Each structure stands twice: as C-alpha cells, then as structure tokens.
Amino acid sequence: MPATALLRTARIARAALLAAGCVALSAVAATAQGLLRDAGIEHGLDRLARPILTAAGLPANRTRVLVVNDTQMNAFVVDSRTIFVTAGLIMRLENAAELQAVIAHEAAHIANGHFARRGLNAQYARNAALVGLAAGVAAGAASGNPGAGVGIALGTQSSAMRNFLSHTREEEAAADKSGMRYLAIAGVDPFALRGVLQNFAGQETLTPGRRDPYAQSHPLSRERLRSVDLTAAQLTPPDRDRADEIYWFDRLKAKLSSYLRTPAYTMQRYGRTDTSDAAVVARAMAHHKSSDLPAARAELATLLERHPEDAYLHELLGWMELEWGNVDRAIDAYARAAELDPREALIQAGYGRALLARGTAQDDARALDVLSAARARDPYDGNMLRDLSIAHAKAGENGLASLATAERYALQGKLEDAGVLAARAAGTLPVGSPAWSRAQDLIRAADMTKRR
Questions:
Q1: Contacts by 384-387 with C-beta closer than 8 Å and gap 24+?
Q2: Engineered SS bond to 348: which of 101, 374, 375, 445, CB 3.0-4.6 Å?
C-alpha cells in the first residue's frame, strides 16, 4: 500500500478511536464520572501495581492504574494499558493485598485478551453514550501515539456500558486463576482475592438496581469462591518484604478518604494519637478542608521533617498553598517537588499552574515550558490542558491555545465543540506539523460523531 494511503488509514483509525473514547451528548454530564488525578495517589498505585504487572508479563512502565471519582465499587479495563478502580472500591478494601488482588484480576483480563474479544468499536461506544455514558479508550495508548488521544468519560448507570464491561463466568474464572498466580509470583497472598469477593457477598440476591456495579460486571457465585479457595491453596508465594506496598496503600487510602469525606469523619478515623504518615496526611487534608491552613501546614511540616525528599509531600503543600492564594509559597513547594521528581506530569502541571498565577512575563514563559512538558508525558489531564491553553494564549500562540482547549473539550466528551476549536486551530498551524495533525484527528473524530 502506498505510504500516503497508509498514513490516511492510520489517521482514520486514530479518529475512530477518538470518537469511541468520548461521550457525545451533554445529557450525560450529570451522571458521567471523571477521574481523580493526584500525583501522590497515582504514585502509590504504581508502587502497588508494578510487581503484579511484572508477574503478568505486562509493561509496568506503560500500564497504569487510575482512580474513577465514584463512591460505588467497581474496577475494569477497556484497553491494554489502563486499569480503572473506583474511589469507593479502594476505600472499602482492607489492606494492600486486597487492592493488589483487584489489580491482578484486571491485569489478567488484559493478559488474557478478554476485553479485546468483546470487540470495542466506535459504534458501540456511541450507542453506550446514547443511553447515558461511555467508557472511552485512551486513543494515545491504543495507537501507541500519546499525542493522538484524549482521555475518558465514565459513568456507572448505563445498562449498555455495563453489559460491555461485564464478563462471562468463564472469563471470571480464568481471570481469578491467572490473577492469583500473578499475586503468588509477586509474593502476595493469593487468598487476598477472597477478601475482595467477600465484600460483595449476597449481591446476587439483590435486584439489579441495588447491586454494586462490580457485582454486576464480575458475576459472583459460591462455586467461584470455592474455586478461588482451591486455587489459592495450591499456590505458595515466596517471602518478600512488602513494607513499601503496605505503606503506600495506607497513605493513598488515607489521602483519598480525607479528600472525599468530611473533616469530622477524618479526624475521628485518624485521631491525633495516630502518628503514622498516612494519618498525618489525612489530618492535613482535613485541616485544609476546615479552612485551617496553619494546622495543615504544621501537619505537613512534621512529615517533611521525616521525609524531606518526598516529592509528593512538597506537591501536596504546593496544592494547599495555591488553593489559599499563597502563590509564592506554592511556587517554592512545587519547584522543589518538580526537582525531586521531574518526570511526574501531575507535579509539572501544578507547578505550571502556580507560575501562571504569579503572572510575570518570566513566569508565563516558564509555565509554558513546564506545561508543555507535562502534556508530552500525560495528555489526559483536563486542568493541565486548560492552563496550557492560557499559557499559549499569553505567548500569542492562538492556534496552539485553541488546540489545547479542543483537547480539553474532547476529554470532557464535548466532541462537537472540540471539532470547532480544532478546525480553528488547524487554520493557523503549519500544515503537517504535529500540532496540525492532532487538530486533524479531532476534526475527523467530531465529523464521525456527526455522521452517526
């Protein structure tokens, strides 16, 4: 096939992935759930996932676990590079091994090719969106081009999407066995999967509307539990120091819980006699939410004395200071975090936001560099894309500003608006440039949505 035809085919395929990955109707906005993007939480999930992904033969540096902002319990995959776990499920789990069991089970669905055999396509994703919501494929991950894609719009009420995400009992049995094998290879107790499943005991006796989404998409049965017990009994994980994984589970769960729950609940759950790092993080978040910044600072100061080179503590301090409008303090904290972990895109995004807030010409130029680097590493952060658009506009780069806004709209499922802005951007960008190509992808994806 001629090179031009190959290029055209690739662009059409990429546009199809973009269309499949977005919710097309504004009516879903009330029910669609977003992602909770937090550098510290995602770092903790990565530390927990790495030994499991390695055991599964998946690329640990290119497969990530993201948190869905939903208090119901669920976990699922829709592509080969991303595992989604709801905040509600994480908060319900008792220990690191149980969260690793969830990751191992979903990794098994990837390794066994279950989602691929169900045949995700643009038409199905559109049909799911029409009845309320859609899970989107991250087009960059699927195509191997991180610049090509947009993120994911999620929800939990659509029967069509629930049917897509659901697994047969045969698939569940296979994922259970593979997942427990991965746990054992990674030195994690495979019986942890039983603890996860026991959270959903009795769900199958409820009416569908009252069941947790996890129970609907991962069918349970007493036979399945017996099979889990038999398989786990045959596996002997090697002794391994798991202190780091336990630490990060406790810390990410504490941070997530304190973010989503009331300060009163957090202070009761993580009392002052608890001096663990997880408890101190939780209390700092509670003080912040209670409008007591000095108390939040004091809690974080305690932690920074213990861990002065923890980038995620400096990032948390920077976020709090910026929330309170203390821009200079925020920049100092974010700069230190970025120095400690220059590869973390979410830290770079926060640093860029703080620089824009101070607003000098030098800060604006620096913000553009920082935010561009953040986008290159992780293009699925809506706040970063908003700030990148502002930075481009301040630099007089209106075409790139429109493109960043178009990508943010696509991330939110507003594909028609994204197409309009992408067309505006394409008219000012150099033909054939990477940015122009990204704009063309969005235009095609929007056109495909209109034609259906």
A1: 384/345, 384/346, 384/349, 384/352, 384/353, 385/411, 387/349, 387/352, 387/353, 387/356
A2: 374
Specify the residue for token string 């009416």: 207
Asked whether the CA dihedral 420, 423, 429, 432 is positive or negative, the reply is: positive
pTM surpassing 0.90?
no
d(CA 324, CA 386): 20
Extract the tokens encoding 32.
């669609």
Closest C-alpha to 28, from 158, 137, 107, 133: 133
CATH number for 261-451 (one of 1.10.10.2840, 1.25.40.10, 3.40.50.2300, 3.40.50.1450): it is 1.25.40.10
Whether the per-residue pLDDT at 154 is higher than 50: the answer is: no
What fold, for 31-233?
Zincin-like (3.30.2010)
SS3 label, residue 378 = coil
Fold agreement (31-233, 261-451): no
Structure confidence at residue 73 as a pLDDT band (50, 70, 90):
confident
Domain range summary for the chain, segments of one domain joined by +: 31-233, 261-451
Q: How confident is the model at residue 436 (pLDDT cuts 50, 70, 90)?
A: very high
Query: Is 356 a residue whose pLDDT tops 60?
Result: yes
Instruction: Name the DSSP class of 35.
Output: E
Residues 6+ apart with CB under 8 A from 287: 263, 293, 295, 296, 299
CB 364 within 8 A of CB 395: yes
Of residues 200, 129, 193, the one with CA closest to residue 164: 129
Distance CA 65, CA 63 (A): 7
State the DSSP code for 223. H
Model pLDDT, residue 452: 58
Residues 6+ apart with CB under 8 A from 14: 139, 143, 145, 148, 149, 441, 444
CA 230 to chain centroid: 33
How open is the CA angle 216-219-224, to the nearest 5 degrees? 160
User: Tens of pLDDT along 28-68?
Assistant: 222 335 788 999 999 999 999 999 999 999 999 989 999 98
Tokens at 413, concatenated: 């499922």
- Per-chain mean pLDDT for the chain: 82
